[in-house]
Design brief:
13 strands; two-stranded parallel ribbon; Glucose Oxidase, domain 1; 9-stranded mixed β-sheet; alpha/beta; 222 residues
C-alpha cells in the first residue's frame, strides 16, 4: 500500500480554462491522446466535471482505499479510480457521494460501476463510470494506492493531472502539457469558429477541409 496524503495541484485558473473547453477539443489538441475508453460514460446525460486528479487504485472487491481518498481530498479534486474494470459490484454509492459533496469534490471517474444512481443524480454529483450495479463491496482490505500513477479507462493518470469530462466522455491532460494543450485548444476553437462562418456562407466540408484530392484518387467527381 502506498498513500501520498497530498500532491501539488495545478493553478485553479488553468483548471478553469481547460474545463471551459470540450473534452473532444482537448483530445484533438493533444494529438488525439488522453481520451478514456468508450465504456467510461456519464452516469446521467448532462454531467460535467473538471479538476485535478486525486488517484486511487484498489479493488476489485473492496473499496476501503476509496474511503481513504475521499477523506484526504480537497475541494475541487476529481477522484479517479482504477477499479480494474470490475462490473460485478458498485463500490461507490449514496453515502460516499454525500461525503464527497460535503468535502467539495469535483466529481468521480471510476473504471468500474456505482450504485444508488438516482440518489447520486439528485445530489448533483458528476460521476463517470462503466455503469451501475446494486451489489456492495467490502471495506476491510487496505491493498491499493492513493495519489500514485494509475491507469483508468486505458489512460495513464497521475495525481495533479487535469480531468475534464462531459457527455462525450473523459479526457486527461497531463499537468506538464496543460498550458500547451490550452493554447492549442484555443487556436482550434478559433479555427472551428471560422469554419462555421464559411459553412454558413455555402462552402462544403469537402472544400473547407481540402478533401478533393482524396475523391480524385478514387475517381469520384462531385
Amino acid at each position: 500500500m502506498t498513500v501520498h496524503k497530498d500532491f501539488s495541484r495545478p493553478a485553479a485558473t488553468l483548471v478553469e480554462a481547460l474545463g471551459a473547453q470540450a473534452p473532444a477539443t482537448l483530445h484533438e489538441a493533444m494529438g488525439k491522446k488522453g481520451a478514456m475508453g468508450h465504456p467510461i460514460k456519464p452516469l446521467y446525460p448532462g454531467m460535467r466535471l473538471r479538476g485535478p486528479a486525486l488517484t486511487v487504485s484498489c479493488g476489485p472487491t473492496d473499496n476501503l482505499m476509496i474511503h481513504i481518498a475521499v477523506a484526504l481530498a480537497k475541494p475541487g479534486d476529481v477522484l479517479v479510480v482504477d477499479f480494474k474494470g470490475m462490473t460485478d459490484a458498485g463500490p461507490w454509492g449514496d453515502i460516499l457521494t454525500a461525503s464527497a459533496v460535503a468535502r467539495g469534490l469535483g466529481g468521480l471517474v471510476i473504471d468500474g460501476c456505482v450504485r444508488d444512481a438516482a440518489a447520486i443524480r439528485d445530489m448533483g454529483f458528476p460521476v463517470f463510470c462503466r455503469g451501475t450495479n446494486m451489489k456492495g463491496t467490502n471495506k476491510t482490505d487496505a491493498k491499493g494506492d492513493v495519489n500514485t500513477t494509475i491507469v483508468c479507462g486505458g489512460v495513464i493518470v497521475s495525481a495533479g493531472d487535469i480531468v475534464v469530462a462531459d457527455d462525450d466522455g473523459v479526457v486527461v491532460v497531463p499537468r506538464d502539457l496543460a498550458a500547451d494543450t490550452l493554447e492549442k485548444a484555443l487556436a482550434r476553437e478559433a479555427a472551428e469558429e471560422q469554419y462555421r462562418h464559411k459553412l454558413e456562407a455555402g462552402e462544403t466540408t469537402i472544400e473547407l477541409l481540402n478533401l478533393k484530392p482524396y475523391l480524385d484518387a478514387v475517381g469520384l467527381a462531385l
